[in-house]
């Protein structure tokens, strides 16, 4: 059995997870400011740790901004992430946000160079030193998304899905719907104790995870083939961050319309 800690950035409530088991440490999506990343780095290095891994749920800029602060760990992410064509754009977005909010970094951002590329055509299992992890392709938000599961802990790192503060941000509606089916199956097949979304609060109860899956499905349904733009609150519910979400809803609608052309 291992132990995990969740770090939440004050930027976008972005969640990073550090997991120790025996001589191995895994860290997902270290983010975002230099001070926050420093705390995560310190948590990854208690005595006795030999093998370090950084895992990426996907390659969006907010999730990869911390990569260059780490020298030792092996990088793990999907094949799709390794093949992204918008790596330079991701770095440009980090720079834009850092400039706007006066965020200083000692390590100029770089796009993670993956040492271990995970199959993204179907589920797979890998041993990362002492830790057995299951991976499931999770496209729809981005094409390169991955769910990671540590079955022995009931720990599920979901990346940018199943948030309680943001509805689905969609690039591919069909793929997103399939990923929600994968999420339903994971919940049926594994005794999940904790689900960590990319942004927002972790879910500790099955009913809560199920509710998030259902709300996401309802929201996707509302995007499908609608002539009239329906307020997102009708299908998904409320969020404290509604004015940003209004913009993202508009973006989703444009995206789905362009997919249907
Ligand atoms: Zn994100």
- What proportion of the residues is helical, as a percent range? 25-40%
Q: What class, by secondary structure content? A: alpha/beta
By CATH reckoning, the class would read Alpha Beta
Question: How many DSSP-defined strands?
Answer: 11
Spatial sequence of strands, sheet with the most strands:
1-2-3-4-5-6
CATH names the topology as: Metallo-beta-lactamase, Chain A
Topology as a string of helices (H) and strands (E)? EEEHEHEHHEEEEEHEHHH
Q: What molecules are bound to this protein?
A: zinc ion
Shape: globular
Q: What is the CA-CA span between the terminal residues?
A: 50 Å
Summed up, the helix count is 8
Strand content: 15-25%
Most strands sheet:
6 strands, mixed
- Return residue spans where pLDDT drops below 50 for at least 5 consecutive residues: none
Task: Describe the protein's architecture and organization.
- By secondary structure, the protein is an alpha/beta fold.
- The chain has one domain (3-260): Metallo-beta-lactamase, Chain A.
- It is 35% helix and 22% strand.
- It is built from eight helices and eleven strands.
- The protein has helices at residues 34-43, 61-64, 79-82, 87-101, 173-189, 206-223, 232-236, 242-260; strands at 3-8, 15-21, 24-28, 51-55, 74-78, 116-118, 124-128, 131-137, 146-150, 155-159, 194-197.
- Strands 1-2-3-4-5-6 form a six-stranded mixed sheet. A five-stranded mixed sheet has the order 7-8-9-10-11, with no helix packed on it.
- α1 links the parallel β3 (24-28) and β4 (51-55).
- α5 packs antiparallel against α6.
- The radius of gyration is 18 Å and the shape is globular.
- Bound molecules: zinc ion.
- Zinc ion binds next to α2.
């Amino acid at each position: 059995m291992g132990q995990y800690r969740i770090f939440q950035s004050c930027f976008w409530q972005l969640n990073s997870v550090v997991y120790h088991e025996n001589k191995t440490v895994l860290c997902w999506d270290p983010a975002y400011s230099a001070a926050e990343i420093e705390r995560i780095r310190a948590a990854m290095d208690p005595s006795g740790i030999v093998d370090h891994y950084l895992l990426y749920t996907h390659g969006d800029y907010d999730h990869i901004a911390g990569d260059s602060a780490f020298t030792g760990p092996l990088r793990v992410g999907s094949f799709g992430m390794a093949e992204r064509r918008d790596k330079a754009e991701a770095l440009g977005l980090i720079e834009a946000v850092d400039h706007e909010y006066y965020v200083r970094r000692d390590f100029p951002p770089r796009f993670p160079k993956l040492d271990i590329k995970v199959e993204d055509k179907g589920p797979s299992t890998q041993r990362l030193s002492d830790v057995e992890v299951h991976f499931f392709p999770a496209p729809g938000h981005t094409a390169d998304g991955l769910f990671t599961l540590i079955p022995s802990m009931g720990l599920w790192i979901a990346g940018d899905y199943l948030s309680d503060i943001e509805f689905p941000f969609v690039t591919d509606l069909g793929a997103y719907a399939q990923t929600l089916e994968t999420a339903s199956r994971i919940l049926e097949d594994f005794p999940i104790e904790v689900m960590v979304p990319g942004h927002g609060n972790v879910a500790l109860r099955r009913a809560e995870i199920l509710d998030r899956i259902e709300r996401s499905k309802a929201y996707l349904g509302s995007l499908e083939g609608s002539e009239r733009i329906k307020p997102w609150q009708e299908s998904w519910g409320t969020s404290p961050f509604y004015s940003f979400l209004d913009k993202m809803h508009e973006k989703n609608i444009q995206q789905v319309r362009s997919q249907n052309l």
